[in-house]
Design a protein that fits this description.
The protein is an alpha+beta fold. The protein is built from twelve helices and twelve strands. Helix content is about 55%, strand content about 15%. It starts with a helix and ends in a 5-residue tail after the last strand. One of its GO terms (cellular component) is plasma membrane.
């Protein structure tokens, strides 16, 4: 069942139930009030009949005649029965009425009055003491008029109820169309999204309602999906382009090598080149696997020393820096030892910092790389600065994207993964990475650690 049909059904049922209950309450309230009105009229009729029949000897003849003339339509003899103390009808022609029983007469004497309905008749009896004795006066009236009013009321209310249900049904259908039109528009836009324009966000409605929240949530999800799709596309492009070089080198060397016998030195040289290319492919794949599992890492943070991590990286990369005619300088400007203690994943942070320092060495072109550990307002900072070629301004915003490499890297080998991987690791540890670079002057990578609480 669609939301529109569900809304229509629920609103119609709700209105129907409320209308039925309301109609029932109105009907029974009107029924009781009308019945009370009829009995009240009969009570007045009974009192007038008692005065007319029992006070005749005490009233002047002209007054008695006036009463008979005014109330003749009420005190018809066939509707009145005046019972004496022996339960005999002494006045009126309503004799031997089977609906008036001895129990009713006794109830009138005990309670001074009684009312009831029987055989489509209203009955009302009153106790009337007189100088001639104590009497019970009963009057009756047909309830045809009462039944007719109740029937008309029932027909009117039933008609109104049916018309109301039909009206609320069609109104609900119309309102559901209006209410769910934004949702229909969202669904229509989503259905138009395909693989080629998946990054296109749905236009916001600016209504500050649930539909707006749905669109924002969808756009966020779409953005993440788009990033993953882009990552897959880049990965395919990267694999097809970047892996071709080492694989072509391996296959080319082996094809040439297999054409004739070689000396042991030539064997070792080709094997070394092939192994270097294999190691390069393996390193790229390991980094990619690590990036793919970054979001699945569980809480594995343990207290560690950042300065010790820096020295491990120094020991590992200092020989490589010397090969590039460069060097690594470490400047420790931290006065609070507690700032150097940081809860994190040591292996990941080592890899992230290693990539940053290695990149600086690659592009230092014989100039030193400086690592500075400093503090400011109870916060640890690490800066990795080189005096190399720098990064063009148009590349600076994209430099941390996966597989992206600057236009001025020349022959320096790289996969475009290291910086992106480092940023993902730093984000995982809530460490802010800022890159500042000036072309032909150098590059600075500033790491801002969380405030030490």
């Amino acid at each position: 069942m669609t939301l529109r049909n569900r809304f229509t059904l629920i609103s119609s049922l709700s209105f129907g139930i409320v209308s039925i209950i309301t109609s029932a309450v109105i009907f029974f309230a009107y029924y009781d009030s009308t019945k009370i009105f009829y009995f009240e009229k009969l009570r007045n009729t009974a009192l007038i009949s008692a005065i007319y029949y029992l006070e005749k000897d005490e009233l002047p003849k002209d007054r008695h005649a006036q009463i008979k003339k005014e109330y003749n339509h009420l005190i018809q003899n066939n509707r009145v029965a005046v019972y004496n103390q022996n339960n005999e009808v002494t006045f009126g022609h309503n004799v031997n009425d089977k609906n008036i029983k001895l129990s009713h007469l006794q109830a009138v004497r005990n309670n001074k009055g009684i009312q009831f309905m029987s055989d489509n008749q209203f009955y009302y009896g009153i106790f009337y003491p007189d100088n001639q004795g104590d009497f019970v006066v009963f009057v009756k009236s047909s309830n045809d008029s009462f039944q007719s009013q109740i029937l008309r009321l029932a027909i009117i209310m039933l008609s109104v109820l049916v018309i109301g249900l039909l009206a609320i049904y069609f109104l609900s259908r119309y309102l559901s169309k209006v209410v769910y039109k934004p949702i229909s528009n969202v669904v229509e836009r989503i259905n138009k999204v395909d693989y080629n324009n998946i990054s296109t966000a749905i236009t916001s409605t600016n209504t500050n309602d649930e539909i707006e929240d749905l669109i924002k949530s969808y756009n966020k999800l779409l953005g993440r999906i788009s990033e993953n799709v882009l990552l897959q596309q880049n990965f395919i492009n990267y694999v097809s382009h970047e892996f071709k070089t080492p694989l072509a080198a391996i296959s080319g060397n082996l094809e040439v090598f297999a054409q004739k016998d070689r000396t042991p030195e030539e064997y070792r040289e080709v094997a070394k080149e092939s192994l270097d290319n294999v190691y390069e492919i393996e390193n790229i794949l390991n980094n990619l696997l690590l990036m793919s599992g970054m979001t699945k890492l569980e809480s594995s943070h343990k207290p560690m020393r950042v300065d010790e991590l820096i020295w491990k990286i120094y020991e590992k990369l200092e020989p490589k820096a010397k090969v590039n005619n460069s060097s690594i300088k470490i400047q420790l400007q931290v006065t609070q030892p507690s700032l150097l203690e940081f809860p994190g994943n040591e292996t990941l942070l080592y890899l992230a910092l290693y990539n940053i320092v290695e990149n600086a060495i690659k592009y230092s072109y014989g100039k030193p790389v400086v690592l500075t550990l400093s503090e400011k307002e109870n916060q640890l900072y690490i800066e990795v600065r080189d005096e190399g070629r720098g990064i063009p301004s148009e590349d600076l915003d994209k430099i941390s994207e996966t597989f992206y490499r600057g236009k001025n890297v020349d022959t320096v080998k790289g996969s475009g993964i290291g910086l992106s991987l480092s940023k993902s690791i730093f984000d995982h540890h809530h460490i802010v990475m800022k890159i500042d670079s000036i072309l032909n002057v150098g590059t600075s990578v500033l790491l801002e650690f969380p405030v030490n609480s």
